[in-house]
Amino acid sequence: MKSIILGTAAMLVPLATEAMDCSGLTAEALGLTGATVTAAEAIAPGEESPVAICRIRGRMAERTGIDGHGYALGFELSLPADWNGGYVHQFNGGNDGEVKPATGALKSGSGAESPLARGYAVVSSDAGHDGRAFPDAGLAGGAAFGFDFEARQMYGYKAVAMLDPLARRAVEAFYGRPVARAYGIGCSNGGRHAMVAAARMPGAFDGLLSGAPGFNLPKAALQHAWDVQQLLPVTGTLATALTREDQAAIGTAVRAACDGLDGLEDGLIQDHAACQAAFDPDTLLCGDDGAACLAPEKLPALKAVHDGPRAADGAPLYAGWDWDAGIEGRNWRMWKLESPIAAWGHRPIIATMGAASLAQVFTVPPTEVEGTPEALEAFLMSYDLGAAAERIYATSGAFPESPMEVMAPPGSDDPELAAFRDAGAKMILFHGVSDPVFSVQDTAAWYRALDANNGGGAEAFARFYPVPGMTHCTGGPAADAFDLFAALEDWVETGTAPGAVEALARDGNDELPAGLPAGSARLLCPAPQVARYQGGDPALAASFACEQE
Ligand SMILES: [Ca+2]
Prior knowledge:
By secondary structure, this protein is an alpha/beta fold. The protein has helices spanning about 150-175, 190-200, 215-235, 240, 245-260, 270-280, 300-305, 330-335, 355-360, 375-380, 390-395, 405, 420, 440-455, 485-495; strands at about 1-5, 10-15, 35-45, 55-65, 70-80, 85-90, 120-125, 180-185, 205-210, 425-430, 460-465, 480, 500-505, 520-525, 530-535, 545-549.
């Protein structure tokens, strides 16, 4: 048993297997100035936490919004009995709006053991709004908060900046010693939060792990309108615009052109860089050979979707997309063609998951859209992409910062991250090559610009790992079980920069190709390197090597 000082009272921290004594953890005792602690509970190891913790739940920055709705920054802080001296700020995904359990775990990227299980104190938040749904549609990830500018700002960058120093103070008050190392970790919108932290809070974190970063979220939301406008007219419904058989035919054709480029026909396109030049989508057109193919009216829509949204004058509005085998995955279908709305009792032919955000959070002025699939689909179909640039970059009296200013890391169109670099901080990014939500090409272009602005030496503080076959944050025909958080810890704590990182084909992933059975290993490589087969047992990571493209 070790004793620590909490406020003015000495408290005993028991062994990790015993319940902790979490009584007396008031906001005052934890140094949570201006916050309200709504619960302080001892959680024994089990379903709710992998280790014994004091779980603190609270609220801060309470106010009434311009819409008359009550807003607050809700948070949860997990304080493990067996503390390793470290702190993790868990950045959540989607539209935020929900305090996810504070464990620091990502679906892919944080390894089999969560940061909490490794002994980190972890904080999580709802980023300043409660994610209330549209009044009558039951949509998850509500975007109604977008009418309130301060709620947009909280979601964009203020919530992390406000909560972070307070949460650290509470950790230090609880354990009676300073935080030794601080990390930020997240995927999707959470990956965006990590990139925002690197730009806006360059001295706050020793290490950041950023997965599938939606750092250009308003631009990426334009892709939803673009996709629906390209795909819906093909057959009149999204679900038939590209059928599952069409997806399989595309995946088969991409593999035919690219699978062997890495030296091994295993269903995984590890040389994703060479694939972009090697694959010709016109080979998808039906010929006389009886091979699986795409009807001629479908090909232009597919090519346009992959090309990315463009304004009326042809100017690109976001990014293009990589050809990869994960296009046949369920996650790709969910985002482009059939969303889980089907499972919530609506007609099963709509993919409008980004519509509410585009309408109400990422444009100035926002547009009121009823939360029904029909209304959201109609909104996307009628969205004027010609005027899109103005609306995501626009300001007004009620919205003094544009959606891009609120959401994107400052300077991300020409990144250098000098303050982050000079603070000695490290950053690892990863992104599924088959991500249908945020384009891996956007992240790759950002990293190339970062490298150029650092004289070709960005790898000294930032490394980027594309994940072949992986869809959004996890899943797809991919080796998607990997521990880049451990790689980041090594880099921060021992100065060992990450190189090739082992990734396993995950048990329970039913989208694995036959050549990549569960349990087999591959390598993730820092861009611009790609993994190539060297010979030997293809189930072993040692049979592959990272090579310069
Ligand atoms: Ca291969």
